[in-house]
Write a structure and sequence with these properties.
The structure is a single chain. It contains 8 helices and 14 strands. It is α/β, with parallel strands linked by helices. The protein is globular.
Length: 280
């Protein structure tokens, strides 16, 4: 059987990560112990995670023509991601400013840059069986993906308004607790809500039908864990796995993603996730 070909339409950013003992409160300044440049952006993170899980994946996004764009593109290609559908724009490549505290919790501000220059006309979805997308690109792009792709998994992050028909057209929607609060859950057939260290639940028309708890891990950095969860869940759906099994697979993958710094620092393989599930 030919493996499913998954597309990721979304953002690619340079992550500037400052590590500190505690996150700053509003108006407060704290001192960081280090500053690191890492590859990030929800779309790029999810594409890299899919590649690590063994998927055949193509990234569709917009990068600047600057050095940062070259660096991100080369990094994705080195991970085995097809980057032939990426477009370049004179706007600076997107950048995320991230603070991570001693317990692994984070605070993020994103300057989208070239991500905002992606247009529906630039989308190349040919030959894709399923598309995973997020909301760090223009809403019009997401609307076009849902209208054109054979199946779409939407990660509703960050939470932005979408037409009801776009939400209803998704194969599945993944949101954290905050992002799910503004969804009309009773009108949606397939929503997965993530709860951080408490795992995730699957809802049908607003009713919880499944719950999965993560394996016990000691997190180093939670940045990007949600992106790995989304990638794993999308892969499981594309493979036709049982929905409860898909939820357990994604929760385990998300937990393993917290074991190293950076959004793409700890990307588990399918074998590692399966071993984790077997052990728990």
């Amino acid at each position: 059987m030919t493996p499913p070909r998954i597309g990721v339409v979304g953002s690619a950013n340079v992550d500037l990560v400052a590590r500190c003992e505690v996150l700053p409160a509003p108006g407060e300044t704290v001192m960081a112990s280090s500053l690191t440049r890492l590859p990030g952006g929800k779309g790029a993170n999810q594409a890299a995670a899919l590649a690590a899980l063994g998927a055949e994946v193509a990234f569709v996004g917009c990068l600047g023509t600057d050095e940062s764009g070259d660096w991100l593109l080369a990094g994705l290609a080195a991970r085995g991601v097809d980057v032939d559908r990426v477009v370049r724009h004179e706007t600076a490549t997107g950048t995320a400013l991230i603070a991570v505290d001693g317990s692994g919790e984070n605070l993020i501000v994103v300057a989208p840059g070239a991500n905002d220059a992606l247009t529906p006309d630039a989308l190349d979805l040919a030959g894709l069986d399923l598309v995973l997308c997020q909301l760090e690109v223009p809403v019009a792009v997401v609307e076009a993906v849902v209208a054109r792709a054979p199946a779409t998994v939407l990660n509703r992050a960050p939470a932005r308004a979408l037409p009801p028909e776009t939400l209803a057209g998704c194969r599945a929607i993944v949101a954290n607790e905050h992002e799910a609060r503004s969804l009309a859950l009773a009108e949606l057939a397939h929503v997965v809500v993530t709860h951080g260290a408490e795992g995730a639940t699957r809802l049908e028309r607003g009713v919880e039908v499944a719950r999965a708890e993560p394996p016990r891990v000691t997190p180093v950095d939670t940045v990007g864990a949600g992106d790995v969860f989304c990638a794993a869940y999308a892969l499981a759906l594309a493979q036709g796995r049982d929905l409860d099994e898909a939820l357990r697979f994604a929760v385990a993958a998300g937990a393993l993603a917290t074991l190293a710094p950076g959004a793409q620092g700890s990307l588990p393989t399918r074998e590692e996730v399966e071993a984790c599930l077997a052990a728990s």
